[in-house]
Specification:
The protein is α/β, with parallel strands linked by helices and about 130 residues long. It has helices spanning about 5-15, 20-30, 40-45, 60-65, 90-100, 110-115; strands at about 15-20, 35, 50, 55, 80-85, 105-110, 120-125. The strands form two sheets. It has a five-stranded parallel beta sheet with strand order 1-6-5-2-4, sandwiched between helices. A two-stranded antiparallel sheet has the order 3-7.
Length: about 130
Amino acid sequence: MTLTLKDMMAAANAVIERIDAARAQELMREGALLLDIRDAPEIEKTGRARGSHHIARGMLEFRADPDSPFYDAELRRDRPIVLHCASGGRAALAGKLLRDMGYSRVYNLGGLKDWAEGGGAVDEPIDAGM
């Protein structure tokens, strides 16, 4: 059987809860990690959610596996993880991946815009001319 993007998105959205910025902020106060999975050029262009940690989606499997030499200790299976990307699609797919890797408390915030519109602070991008 061949999976399509539509199939993968449906599977991800079926298991990863979509939350709003208020719930994300509440989880962060309780110790959750806000994880920005966008690529570096996106962050350089639009800034990042204050308090977020960055791991590009393309490196997530390597950073999430404790047996990998590239493991990121910010990712712990006992810590809730709130993912966001630009619009929520990559965050959903990444959330399912983390669930498949044993992370049980994973949430999809959607995009950086959802964070900002929900009252979350955004650190502006660094002026490229500086």
